[in-house]
Amino acid sequence: MKYKINNLEQYEEQYQEALSKPKEFWNKIAQEFSWSKKWTEVCEFDMINAEFSWFKNAKTNITENCIDRHLKDKGSQTALIFEPNAPKDKAEHISYNELHKRVCKMANALLALDVKKGDRVAIYLPMIPELSIVVLACARIGAIHSVIFAGFSSSALAARINDASCKIVVTADGGFRGNKTIDLKSIVDEALKDCPCVQHVIVAERTKTEVKMHPSRDNYLNDLLQNASEVHEAEPMDAEDPLFILYTSGSTGKPKGMVHTVGGYMVYTAYTFKNVFAYEQGDVYWCTADIGWITGHSYILYGPLLNGATSILFEGVPTFPNPGRFWDVVDKFGVNQFYTAPTAIRALAKESLEYVERYKLSSLKVIGSVGEPINEEAWQWYHKNIGKGNCPIVDTWWQTETGGILISPIPHVSPQIPTYATTPLPGIQPILMDNSGAEIKESEGEGRLCIKYPWPSIARTIWGDHKRYKETYFSAYPGYYFTGDGARRNKDEMYRITGRVDDVIIVSGHNLGTAPIEDAINEHDEIAESAIVGFPHDIKGNALYGFVTTKSDIKDEEQLKKDINALISAKIGPIAKLDKIQFTSGLPKTRSGKIMRRILRKIAEGNLSDFGDISTLLNPEVVKQIKDGRDA
Ligand code: WTA
To answer: What is the pTM of this model?
Structure first.
């Protein structure tokens, strides 16, 4: 396999080449793919105005590279293994040949509903094979997929559908998650009361829950597939045509629809999958994420399929029917690479070790972590009990915005340091900025993490709002991409990510903006004002603490707390519920009226004395009251 990094010299060589001659480097990597027309320019960019193009004027279709390209040699090899929620239900093995047929059929079904190149398709599905197939079918016909995690509420769904004016929504009657059934179709029905852009709804059948079908709008997927042909020629796409939109949280209430384009995303996810997971032909790879998040897009679907891999699609949850479920699946399929989130590791580490010891786990070669900083204890537990002390851990740092992994160890190549994401991959130039906005030049230091030079899968814009894209990522440090994360660099130039430095809080690996949660709470008639901060939590990493001021005296505090969480569930989803709520007579403010979140963060953490500089604090008496009434 070309460009596989097998030892430290090769890493150094590729890193140096990508640093000194980035265009030549990516030009060579991109040759591995099938393009119907080659590029005129490898890359053009303007880091001030946030404009990027990779493989300019080239034409390809990512599904030809994910599927068709492999048919000759690996048609009968398994592309996807679907492991259902209930262990008693049979797994489904989908070969590359079958995937090809099913994606083509789905592509024709979408075309029959008049979905055209460039149209947006919202996908609100559980982790069933149809989710992968619809995503790939959209890519095949050039429609832009917007997958919305099936845990979002109807109003969050509606906001995302409307933001991109989606023409079609693909959903299911319901979804299974552990011992719960979620009625997805009724959530869609509720959302669509406010979405005039939607012309058709496609309903896959999973739970056989009874659903209401709107005659002129709704279609069962099976009916559409019945008349659809298995033959479909992939639509030639420009390398810079949008491939998908994926929403992430930001510092205002409106979610940011990150836009990724075909060519650069394809090249970068394929290259990083191959190297970070040391994938070898015949291996079985499993990433436990949901396709509703970027990790699922890049490292369940696109990255693995581009490499002709076998990738597992898991419908269930780590603790159903018991906390041995992950390890059961690892042994069942002989998983070689396993990729999960620290929150899952911490939750399973809390359970009896007996759930791990029942299984051999001897097939594992590489184990990975993503989504939030992994603490030392969880790292050691994972290394010892799952990796049996001999599987490298790849602590992969990246973001929805970056499309692919930017900083990560390479198995058997980079040194392992617990809690460190270690070194940047070839093509990635991280730097740290100090508080004054100057670059920290010494090897050792701690600051805000920025990236100096673009890479192929950097998001191109925020859907419909390039100004916001530029302001969010390229204006804090003009000329650099600002990640929103803090990081520490040691004397060997290894990076450890310390966490978000903006208004995003990562709870159980989900990014949550404080502003949308505050907006949701403030809609309550009795609430005057609120401020949300994060505080450390043993399993979730962070949990949410809400400081809430009411307009008048509260009649029933417990009821109001319940109402607040119900409102958050309805507006965003249960993932954004608050662990602690404290009613306060006011919020600490600066003289200019800004909430001093720094003080609230300290109180939430239980640090009641060390508030730093409070010379601009307008209302010290409020701080005293809040300290006294802390929700411990
Ligand atoms: C955090 C997930 C520490 C980080 C791929 C980033 C991490 C945010 C790591 C992006 C890691 C991700 N160590 N923190 N290995 N990986 N993060 O967009 O704060 O869901 O900015 O993408 O997760 O989350 P997102």
So the answer is: 0.95
Is there an atom of ligand 1 within 6 Å of 506 CB?
yes
- Cα of first residue to Cα of last residue in the chain, in angstroms, is 55
Distance 143 CA to ligand 1 centre (A): 28
Ligand 1 test: best mutation among 511, 512, 542, 575, most atoms within 8 Å of CB?
Answer: 511
Query: Over the stretch 143-153, which tens digit does the pLDDT of each residue have?
Result: 999 999 999 99
Any domain includes 566: yes
Matching residue, tokens 């399993």: 539
Provide the strand spans (E) within 310-442.
Answer: 310-314, 337-340, 366-370, 393-396, 430-433
* Residue closest to 391 by CA, chosen among 546, 278, 510: 278
In a domain, 625, yes or no: yes
Q: What would the mean pLDDT of 103-110 be, rounded to a whole number?
A: 98
| pLDDT above 60 for 1 | no
Question: Which atom belonging to ligand 1 lies closest to the Cα atom of 373?
Answer: 3
Could you give the C-alpha distances from 58 to 61, 157, 404, 425, 456, in angstroms and in order?
Answer: 10, 34, 21, 25, 14
Per-residue pLDDT at 251: 72
pLDDT, tens digit, 9 for 90 and up, residues 340-383: 999 999 999 999 999 999 999 999 999 999 999 999 999 999 99
**Beta carbon of 421 within 6 Å of any ligand 1 atom:** yes
How many structural domains is the chain composed of? 1
Confidence of residue 459 (pLDDT cuts 50, 70, 90): very high
Taking the alpha carbons of 446, 371, 366, 419 in that order, is the dihedral positive or negative?
positive
Q: What's 549's domain CATH number?
A: 3.30.300.30
Q: Is residue 349 part of a domain?
A: no
* Residue of 346, 398, 512 with the most ligand 1 atoms within 8 Å of its CB, for mutation: 398
Q: Is 408 in the pocket of ligand 1 (CB under 6 A)?
A: no
Q: Which atom of ligand 1 is nearest to the CA of 405?
A: 5
Per DSSP, what are the bridge partners of residue 172? 204
- Asked whether 398 lines ligand 1 (CB < 6 A), one says yes
Q: For residue 175, what is the DSSP state?
A: E
For ligand 1, atom 8, the nearest C-alpha belongs to: 399
* Domain housing 537: 504-631
Domain annotation covers residue 449: no
Distances (CA, A) of 543 to 21, 75, 242, 509: 44, 46, 35, 11
Closest CA to 349 of 328, 380, 372, 370: 380
- pLDDT band for 254, please (50, 70, 90 cuts): confident
